[in-house]
Amino acid sequence: MEICQLSGRFFSAVPLQFNVGLRKSSRAPKFLVCSNRVNCYQTGKTDQDSRNRMFILGMGFVGQFFTQELLNEGWVVSGTCTSMKKRNELEQRGFNVILFDANQPEMSTMNSLKSCTHLLVSIPPVMGIGDPILQHGELLRSTLMDVNLQWLCYLSSTSVYGDCGGACVDEGYPVSPTNEMAKLRLAAEQGWLKVAHDAGIKAHVFRLGGIYGPGRSAVDTIIKREPLSESQKRRVSKQFTSRVHVADICQALKASIHKKPARRIYNIVDDDPASRKEVFAYALDLVEKKWHSLTKETTHERAESFGQKASLRGEKRVSNAHMKNELAVQLLYPSYKSGLQSIVDQMENPF
Ligand SMILES: NC(=O)c1ccc[n+]([C@@H]2O[C@H](COP(=O)([O-])OP(=O)(O)OC[C@H]3O[C@@H](n4cnc5c(N)ncnc54)[C@H](OP(=O)(O)O)[C@@H]3O)[C@@H](O)[C@H]2O)c1
């Protein structure tokens, strides 16, 4: 890291430190003038301006969990959602949220990016369109050329590997997405890495397994007696589905911020790829042990629906070795078993 010492009427004698190496040198003067951190020295304002600022495009399941963790650690966090109802709910929880439709990005939202130091992209591709923000390439490019970003992460999916015949798949395994959504996902990965590279921003792609956590898990599906979603139905017969608890995604995100790893792409999954049938049976057992009063018929019928014959065609076991070795992530929930157990333990009375 280079250390720049500034003097003159705008700056105190305190040396400013920032990582010039990540940015194009021609942009350094702009950084000095525009940075909030500099404002803080100019005006004597503290703290608020010098803290890390995360912007989350898409305050969905991961975005909200991550926001809460960062707020607990003293970050300034803002993010987006698409509906007024959700914005109100999130504001009630103390979150700073902006309404944002990525299909029609507003200048004001893009301007909000300019004051952040870190950017998490958590908006999925749209069928028939692709990544909705990358569609507005020029606007995005001009915004990113004028920001003070130290870190950008795009949340992707292990679906980009496609059908692997049961192979063990690390980040070097050739990508070969088979369905339309996975193809759009791969294009989005490449698009975000390119946009960030062109702007001199350090960027990562996290390929996530099936995300679960409090409020979204096999336990919740059983308790709420929800019908299976389309993606759940598609995965019913799979022998191996990689998963990851949302708390472990957050650990990996934080590790990539603090460790500044060389690799751009990481698989973020747990140690225990397993079939839906197995996971659902385990969740059912946990629920019945804790809440004996639950009607067993419905839940057992549901368990039966996971009894279809499995085949290895199109399957993969996704490796998390690089996440562990390079990001030094020690999984809080290495298996769905400990993850589901913790979810049940935290539930008071869900009925
Ligand atoms: N769920 C999984 O198992 C899984 C697995 C691998 C990868 N992923 C991907 O990982 C990322 C994070 O997952 P997640 O489960 O946290 O996602 P999520 O809960 O579905 O959240 C997605 C966020 O994107 C926002 N969004 C969607 N379309 C948008 C648009 N056109 N314009 C603006 N915002 C839009 C949503 O807005 P609202 O808040 O208003 O709905 C939401 O905040 C997503 O890209 C997801 O597809 C998910």
Side-by-side strand order of the widest sheet? 5-4-3-6-7-9-12
What pattern of helices and strands is seen along the backbone?
EEHHEHEHEHEHEEHEEHHEHEHHEHH
Please tell me the CATH architecture of the largest domain by its name: 3-Layer(aba) Sandwich
Q: Assign the structural class, choosing from mainly alpha, mainly beta, alpha/beta, alpha+beta, or little secondary structure.
A: alpha/beta
Strand content: 5-15%
User: What is the CATH fold-level name of the largest domain?
Assistant: Rossmann fold
Average residue pLDDT = 82
Per CATH, the superfamily of the largest domain is NAD(P)-binding Rossmann-like Domain
Helix/strand layout:
Blueprint: E1 3-4, E2 16-17, H1 28-34, H2 36-43, E3 53-57, H3 61-72, E4 76-81, H4 84-92, E5 96-99, H5 107-112, E6 118-121, H6 137-144, E7 151-157, E8 167-169, H7 180-198, E9 203-208, E10 210-212, H8 218-224, H9 230-235, E11 243-245, H10 246-259, E12 265-268, H11 276-290, H12 296-304, E13 316-318, H13 321-326, H14 336-346
Parallel strand pairs: 3-4, 3-6, 4-5, 6-7, 7-9, 8-13, 9-12, 10-11
Antiparallel strand pairs: 1-2
Helix pairs in contact: 3-10, 8-11, 11-12, 11-14
Residues 58-63, 80-83, 86, 100-103, 122-124, 126, 132, 155, 157, 208, 210-211 line the site of NADP nicotinamide-adenine-dinucleotide phosphate.
